[in-house]
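Weekly modeling sync, notes
Attendees: S.R. (lead), two postdocs, one rotation student

Agenda item 3: backlog of single-chain predictions. S.R. asked that every request posted to the team notebook include the full sequence so nobody has to chase files. The rotation student volunteered to paste the first one in as an example of the format we agreed on. Action items at the bottom.

Example entry:
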Amino acid sequence: MKILFCGDIVGRAGREAVIEHVPLLRRSLGLDFVIVNGENAAHGFGITGKICDELFESGVDVITGGNHTWDKSEIIPLMDRDTRLLRPANFPPATPGRGAFVYTDRAGRRIKVINLMTRLFMELLDDPFPAIQSELPPGAPKKSGFDAVIVDIHGEATSEKMALGHVCDGRASLVVGTHTHIPTADTHILVGGTGYQTDAGMCGDYDSVIGMEKQGSINNFLRKLPRERLTPAVGEATLCGVYVETDSQTGLAKSVCPVRCGGRLSPQLPVMDAT
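Predicted structure, as returned to the notebook:
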């Protein structure tokens, strides 16, 4: 399978980048499945039903979340109704929605997507380590009837994300981090066969401070006053993500590559085998 995971969508610029590039990438890369993190899609804070519809119409299959999942209260009932929306699995059990789900693509292949949130420098949720252990298959995805298993780890600390990545090694196709909005340069396949990148980066305007308008962000560092309400930057956005191709026999990663399209960052796409 060929799967694309896109990092945090920040505001209108990020949404427009995803809506523009995802249909093109689906065709040019022959993508079978697309996942995006949408927790900052609505003016930088949360997501709405209307935005979900726009993303699904563009070719997105699943939207994951994080610490801003609930910033728009209208998403709460939709989270229960629509299985294409995920929130971190280690929210308390009574929380609306779900943290993992098994999807079926047009070819009948089964893809499990798991969403987690870390705890270092973040809101203290339930421990993500036992949470991921309970959601992962016991071995390689295909042995448990999955064609792919994708894990979104939403968190601040690179060490915690990497530790969770190693816990998933050999049991997931791809583990990718979100939340910091900066793409890391450590894209590789772990020793057990799981594709990994500590942070996918964001789908947003990089002439900014992690997607937000520069001066307001700078003022919050310079002045000891009540914090300014930040607004998303509105320039051309870069779509940042991670591409993984899975092995048909194991469901583990055959290849993994960062993806960058548009905006200010240097472009990068996987090199497709002409055969």
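Discussion: group reviewed the output briefly. The chain has a mean pLDDT of 97.
Action items: rotation student to repeat for the remaining queue; S.R. to check formatting next week.
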